[in-house]
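Friendly challenge for the regulars: who can give me the structure tokens for this chain first? No prize, just bragging rights.
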Amino acid sequence: MERSFSTPGETRLRIRNPAGLVLIETGETSETVVELQALRDDEVTRNAIENATLEQRGDTVTVEIAKQSWGFLGRSPSVGVRVRCPYGTALECTTASADVSAAGRIGGTSVKTASGDVQLDHVGGSLDANTASGDIRVSAVDGEASLNLVSGDARIGTARSGLSITLVSGDLEVGEAHADLSAKSVSGDQKVRSIRDGQIRLQSVSGDIEVGVAPGTRVFIDASATSGDVRSELDVSQAPRERGSDQPGGEAKLRLKSVSGDIAVVRGAQPAEVS
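First reply, four minutes later:
Bragging rights claimed.
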């Protein structure tokens, strides 16, 4: 099943899919094209596609797989939802076990899944992502971001605004944090490759913490580890090196706390500037 909608202006996309896949691709287009594919050859999946809601109201396109199509003993359909839409389309997506993937730049995004993975290229607005048993990978996010995971890893390439993350039984890796960062984890390591500004608050139980500080950044460190070691490659009594006009530097305050884990503050790379 395929349907096209005229979306020449700001567009919002609402998707509800219990199981299967959600694949989104943005591009230079004024249309939103939705395609539903059966990922399993059974009656419950065919009925779900036949009874699916595909509609447009104003600037919002809704794709909803009918709950009444669920099979005996709660067996859900397995449907692939593929969407081609304009750059910057805002996304609201809820799934039970479907993986969610978006290629290209999307707008403000909210994703909730029980046991699916989430992979996003570029979120041009805010991000709110929650998964109970899945990984979250985001190449870049421009707006404020909040992530909550249980039994999953989080990988963020570049966070250009505030970032807040809570993990249970999962590892965290952040490539570049350009502003405030708050992370709490249980049974998982935290690694932030480069920070340059803001309040950095990292707490870990049964996991290690490593933070890289960008060149030219003045840093204040408050770190403590219970049943773990604390080390720093930086001489915090030494003034930061002279900054050039193309490297304005910043000031970061690190508050790091670990229980049953080590803490390391290391030299990080200079984060890339926002283009």
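The chain has two domains: 1-126, 144-234+249-269. The helical segments are 43-50. Your move, everyone else.
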